[in-house]
Every structure is written in structure tokens, then in C-alpha cells.
Amino acid sequence: MTDQADPETAFLEQLGQRVRTMRGLRGMSRKVLAKVSGISERYIAQLESGKGNVSIVLLRRVSGAMGAHLEDLIPADEPTTDWPVIRDLVRNATPNQIAQAKDVLAGRGHGPFQNYMSFSGIALIGLRGAGKSTLGKLLADKIGWSFVELNKEIEQHNGLSVAEIIALYGQEGFRRMEQAALNGLLGRKEPIVLATGGGIVSEPVTFDRVLSSFYTIWLKAKPEEHMARVRRQGDLRPMADDRSAMQELRTILLSREPLYSRASAIVDTAGLSKDKAAAQLVGAVSRVLNTNAQAFGLRSAAS
Ligand SMILES: Nc1ncnc2c1ncn2[C@@H]1O[C@H](COP(=O)(O)OP(=O)(O)OP(=O)(O)O)[C@@H](O)[C@H]1O
Ligand SMILES: O=C(O)C1=C[C@@H](O)[C@@H](O)[C@H](O)C1
Ligand SMILES: [Mg+2]
Fold it and tell me: Hey, which of 77, 130, 192, 238 would disulfide with 121, CB 3.0 to 4.6 Å?
């Protein structure tokens, strides 16, 4: 590798090195690897020397032939040298073991009512137009808690609008600021009703923090309802403002549904008026607060 190798050349060289190391670990000659993977020996030699810009499908064949995980061949900064061990233990763990491991790593105790790192309130999640802001404010007024909009917190902290942040710093920058803003809300003395941004589920650590600090409710609606509501607001983010917007919204909703459904509760607002949806939400929250007030460390329950 030359001193001034550009990042892409360096990446390919590291990839080649990883393939070579893994092949060595497996005790496979190039010839054997070529035979098992069905890829020519010459091509594997090129790949190992960092010269072949291999397609992902061929790389998958190479990793499969070595009985290795594809991700182990991709150069990356692993959080610890124990990472492959931890990852493989997690892969084989029971859901209960995973829950316990998460508690230990997050530094919290384990028990039926110690699920929350420290109870911070109610968080509303869901796609744009779900009603997080509108119904969240109504809920907060009803139970006498403060209402906080996470996107507004981010805007205030950084002196820029969400759109400006994404344009200037990209998704990654926005997600970093979102996590920082969320951290700033945790551990307050009084619980809050928090309206999150629709994409909060896309950053695993941030979303996990929401789930472990708030009783989280997914406000669900039909794709057409989401679209009609955000259109009325005149800003389609994160969909593009064109004819493919509806298709994009469906794709986003489909990919996020498994994450949204990790919420503690779901309030389905499909076909409901704003008032009826608010009543459903208040009802769901009142029930859970009445049952768990003590566990949440609240002085009194909502009525
Ligand atoms: N159940 C409902 N029936 C009809 N309209 C609703 C309902 N819930 C919300 N709305 C309306 O839809 C619009 C979008 O709602 P709201 O801004 O609360 O959604 P949101 O989840 O906060 O979206 P965003 O992620 O964009 O902040 C508002 O004009 C609101 O009045
Ligand atoms: O659903 C999303 O991906 C987003 C929703 C908005 O609230 C903003 O958080 C941002 O535009 C991304
Ligand atoms: Mg909102």
C-alpha cells in the first residue's frame, strides 16, 4: 500500500488482506477456494492483492466458500477485538439472554419493573402525519405533563431548521444531533410527553434509548392518511415531492413497521377523527399510568 493510497484503493487492499487472512485461517489454498467458490484462481489472486473490485455477489460466494460471515471480510472499525465473539454469542442467544445482556451493557438492573433505565415519560413514534404533535400536545395537557417536540429541541440546540441540518450535515449529522437532543431530555425530574421525528427508529442506539426510557406508543395510520396529512402541511420530507411520493411513503412505512411495532403500545388512528384518536390515546395512557404509577416512580396516576 502506498503512503498516499486514496481511500478506495486502501479499502480494496484491506478487503484483499481480509480475504487472504480468512483463507489462511481456514487453511484453504487459493486453488481450493477457487474450486469451492467457482471463481477463477486468477480472480481470487487479484481480489487478494486489492486489485479486483469484486461485486458483492462474488464476494458473498467467496465468504460462503470459506464458511465465513460476509461482514467479516468488509473492512470496518470494530468496537472491540471481542466483537466477533460477542456477535456470535448474540446470534445464538435466547431473547431472555439478550435482554439481560442489554441491561448489563446499559448499566441497569434487571427485573419486571426495572425495564426503564429511568422513566422519562411517554414517547410517541410513527411516520410523518401520524399525529405525534397534535395528539401529543392534547395528551400532555390532559395529564398535566410538559410537551416536548424532539425536532424543535434539535433546531433550538443547533440554531438551524431540520431541513437545513440535513442539507448541511446529511442524515448522519442529523441523527447525531437527534441523539444528543434526546440525551438532554433524559433523567429530568418530571416526566414529559415527547413527540419524536418519524425517522428516529433508523438509528438503533437512539431508538433503544427511547424504548428504555419512555413508555413508547406507535401512532399508526393508513399510508393514504399519512400522505393526505403531510400534503396538507406542504412539506413531504422524507419523501420526494413528486409522483413517486406515495410509493416512497409505502416503502418507508413497510421498512419501519417492524421497528415501530417494538413500541410498548399501539394506538391505531385509522379512520378516526382527531378527537376520537386523541381519546384513544388518552385512554391507553391513563390505563398504563394507573396500573404502573408506582413502578414508574410517579406520585399520582392520570385519571
Ligand atoms: N386522527 C387524525 N385525523 C385527522 N387529522 C389528523 C389526525 N391526527 C392528526 N391529524 C392532522 O394531521 C396533520 C399532521 O399531524 P401531526 O403534525 O400531529 O403529525 P406528526 O406525527 O407530528 O407529523 P410530523 O412527523 O410531520 O411531525 C395535522 O394537521 C393534524 O391536525
Ligand atoms: O421520517 C423521517 O425520516 C423524518 C421525519 C422528520 O420528522 C425529520 O426528522 C426528518 O425530516 C426525517
Ligand atoms: Mg410533528
Answer: 192
